[in-house]
Amino acid sequence: MVKQQQISNQDVQQAIDSEEEEEDEKEVEISLSVRAIPLIDLLKTAISVESYVMWE
Q1: Is 14 exposed, middle or buried (0-12, 13-18, 19+ CB in 10 A)?
Q2: What is each CA distance from 29 to 6, 24, 35, in whole angstroms?
């Protein structure tokens, strides 16, 4: 019976590891330039119209 419990624990751990790997694969890496361009455009526009940029 102890051996069955060990196998079950291993199966559970493998399932958890598998789910974590799938979650990691789903995350798409977005480069800094792709994320920064909208902010840079926003700041340039604010400067050109002599306005402010605020966020909470």
Answers
A1: exposed
A2: 37, 10, 11
What 3-state class would DSSP assign to 28?
coil
Task: Count CB atoms within 10 A of the CB of residue 46.
Answer: 13
Tell me the pTM.
0.45
Sign, CA torsion 40/46/52/54: negative
The CA R_g of the chain, rounded to the nearest whole Å, is 24
Nearest to 39 by CA among 55, 27, 18: 55
pLDDT digits 0-9 by tens, 23-51: 666 677 888 888 899 999 999 999 999 99
* Rounded-to-integer distance, Cα 9 and Cα 33, Å: 44
